[in-house]
Design brief:
It is found in: Membrane. The chain is an all-alpha fold and 462 residues long. The chain has 18 helices and no strands.
């Protein structure tokens, strides 16, 4: 009996010590992981609504004009006006209420992870969401992926403030979590969302067991919510292609090297146009908004007779994979989309560049594929394999995140059997881009944004 009482007291003592230790322990990691799950779910919901919203605005724009206007030339004029008004709304909201909501927003998040840029979620979230509906719905050559990443990070900051967390490490972790959840939602690609944070934001991301767990949790919960709303199908359902024969792998290396040159040219031309636009705007709201109306209206009007060269780019990818274009058409569409993509993005519109990059990569890969079939008919390679490899290669050459580009395209298309040619193509693109002195696009955009902010601060203080 005495022995039983002694054992009972010993167990009570151990339980008491455990409860006291639990009470005195730091609950912050648990709270961060709990918030990561909530943030992922909210980002999955908001990102899905943003996707559905942009599709609804775009279809409403087209159906409304076609319903009330029948004459072909009047349709073009009416589409110009409607698209211009939608774009001007987005540009005005950005310039008037939240300048940091312009562009894709990813450089802003990278700056926030370095404590160089503020995250004013109460301004960015409504402006990015509504303004993005306007610019993307107008038919401009922009993607919803970058905006979804910025929305995700700003939602994270909102929860950080609402739950009154104080330590900066938790803030960084949640910002990275929201960004990963945003990319996972935009592409229905959780692994790519995680890798994007680790690879693209590696200088800013503060790696720890808690932070990486939070990023995993956020990406997973965001993807689950997205699939509950939109289904489990891949974003680009373009069918399955055969794996590349071993004796053709060298062709993918050459393709990657060509993409390294294209990527360098794309980045430099985009940055050149951005400097021209900024010089024209002179920080005047009227010029910014009117230019947005001109670009948005032009894209809307062009979409009436040449929809292949405007819009986000998913439709042209599907058409390319269905062999709907000749090599001449592909060359024309690539050149024109190169222009419309760089003009739309460099003008400061609230919109991203991911899906337009994927479309450009698909078109250039298709051109290369036709050329290969002409020169080496004995290989009998499917053109679509070069197009898929091209998606990831241009992403790798411009953003300089090859691993993310590889996994992103494979998750989007469900063509995992092409992983080897994808790796070879992306390596070739990255090496050539680096040898030619190219730098990651988002890093350069962040540097230029910080320089402009510093100059404005100096002018204000004088």
């Amino acid at each position: 009996m005495t022995q039983d009482n002694s054992n009972h007291q010993s167990n009570n003592h151990r339980l008491f010590q455990l409860l006291r230790k639990l009470k005195e322990s730091d609950k912050t990691p648990v709270k961060v992981l709990f918030l990561a799950a909530i943030i992922g779910a909210v980002v999955g919901l908001i990102g899905s609504l943003f996707m559905l919203g942009t599709e609804w605005v775009s279809s409403l724009r087209i159906s409304s004009v076609n319903q009330y206007v029948t004459n072909k030339w009047l349709i073009i004029a009416a589409m110009f006006v409607v698209s211009a008004l939608l774009a001007m709304m987005g540009y005005y909201l950005v310039k008037r209420f939240s300048p940091e909501a312009g562009g894709s927003g990813i450089p802003e998040i990278e700056g926030a992870l370095q404590d160089l840029r503020p995250v004013r979620w109460w301004r960015v979230i409504p402006v990015k969401f509504i303004g993005g509906l306007g610019t993307l719905g107008s038919g401009m050559v922009l993607g919803r992926e970058g905006p979804t990443v910025q929305l995700g990070a700003n939602i994270s900051q909102m929860f950080y403030d609402l739950f009154r967390l104080k330590d900066n490490e938790s803030r960084h972790t949640l910002l990275a979590t929201g960004a990963a959840a945003g990319l996972s939602t935009a592409f229905n690609a959780p692994l790519a969302g995680i890798l994007f944070i680790i690879e693209e934001m590696r200088p800013q991301f503060k790696y720890s067991l808690i932070s990486i767990k939070a990023v995993f949790i956020g990406a997973v919960t965001a993807t689950i919510v997205f699939r509950l709303i939109n289904g489990e199908g891949v974003v680009l359902n373009i069918g399955q292609f055969s794996s590349a024969p071993m004796d053709t792998l060298w062709l993918y290396l050459i393709l990657g090297m060509l993409f390294g040159v294209v990527g360098i040219g794309f980045n430099r031309f985009l940055l050149y146009l951005q400097s021209l636009f900024l010089a024209f705007y002179q920080n005047k709201v009227s010029r910014f908004v009117l230019m947005g109306g001109l670009i948005g209206g032009s894209c809307g009007a062009i979409g009436v007779f040449a929809p292949e060269i405007v819009g986000g780019g998913y439709s042209v990818i599907h058409q390319m994979m269905a062999n709907s274009f000749t090599i001449t058409m592909l060359m024309v569409f690539f050149a024109l989309r190169f222009l419309t993509t760089t003009i739309s993005f460099s003008s400061g519109a609230p919109g991203g560049i991911f899906s337009p990059l994927l479309a450009l990569g698909t078109l250039f890969g298709g051109i290369y594929g036709y050329g290969v079939l002409e020169l080496f008919p004995q290989y009998q390679i499917e053109i679509g394999t070069f197009a898929i490899a091209g998606m990831g290669a241009l992403f790798a050459a411009t953003v300089r995140a090859p691993l993310t580009g590889i996994v992103l395209v494979l998750e989007m298309t469900d063509n995992y059997q092409l992983i080897l040619p994808m790796i070879i193509t992306c390596i070739g693109a990255t090496i050539v881009a680096q040898l030619l002195g190219g730098r990651p696009l988002y890093s350069v955009l962040l540097e230029k944004s910080l320089e402009r902010s510093q100059k404005q601060a100096e002018n204000t203080s004088q």
